[in-house]
Amino acid sequence: MSNDLNFDPNRPLFVPSGERFPIAQSQGALAMAFASGRPVLIYLHGRAKGIGEPRKSVQTNIYRGLGSYGVSVIGFTWDADDGGYDETRPLESADNFDRFLDALAEFQDSAAGRDEAKPSLIAHSMGNLIVAELAKEGRLDSGRGMLFRNIVMNAAAVKAKRHHMWLEKIGTAQRNYVMINQQDKVLLFAGFLFRPNMLGRELRGPGAASDRTTYVELSQLGVNHRYFVPAAQNNQASLRSFFAQALVGHDVNFDGIAEPEGVDGIKVRRLKPGGILHEVAADADLGSVQDEDQD
């Protein structure tokens, strides 16, 4: 395997073609992605114990799976090769991601149409710590402008307690989605070992919700942790429909795939087993997602 897949702190931006970019060349990565003519998706990965990133996401076909939605992906990599819930590693990369957001704003200002240059963002597992940290510090507020169409927080390995306080500070996206899966074994284990109730598994706390956020509950679908990738979706059309819309930047149409309900006193959209397909991109060779019960 090529050393090009080893984590490189000097080149944290990765595109599936294999090219790497330093933060100083963020606009070059953005120009390449938008030149594809496809919607652009920024991907913040989770932990990669013993493998590292972007190697893990390449080996387990996550980039291929994301590409099957019809998007052009830019991966922001951080030093994820740890053996547990080490919050310091993603937080050390928050400043770098903040610099990437500055470059994104500059790119949008120089683009012919600012609205056409808005990507969406998916943060997975511990990658959500970067989003939470920047939000807590006020670096994702509306003062930065509307940088994203959608932010999707998938299997968020962040503390559920008082999550609404930092979610309310996110003003850089047209829409925020938080995924909740009470069957997530990875977050169950993390919560048991490290004590916090993880946001991606349990909301906990009546009324502790962000009005800026749509909470999407999927505990009935029989999936585990990396359900944003088609190969890990247990053939659930409702789940595929959600991500096929959200990751390309659409306002998700929940008709036929979800019902409004309440969980722990918080309004959610509960995805139905089965469901129908909305706005699904042409199928690609999805490959398989390996080590599904790991981060």
Summed up:
The chain is of the alpha/beta class and 295 residues long. It has 9 helices and 10 strands. It has one domain: Rossmann fold, CATH 3.40.50.
Offer a few descriptive terms.
295 residues, alpha/beta, Rossmann fold, ten-stranded mixed β-sheet, 10 strands, globular
The overall pLDDT average reads 89
Our count of helices gives 9
Shape verdict: globular
- The biggest beta sheet, please? 10 strands, mixed
Percentage of residues in DSSP E strands: 15-25%
Question: Could you characterize the architecture of this molecule?
Answer:
The protein is of the alpha/beta class. The protein has a single domain (3-271), classed as Rossmann fold (3-Layer(aba) Sandwich). The chain contains nine helices and ten strands. Strands 2-1-4-3-5-6-7-8-10-9 form a ten-stranded mixed sheet. Strand 6 (148-154), helix 7 and strand 7 form a beta-alpha-beta unit. Mean pLDDT is 89; it is low at 282-287.
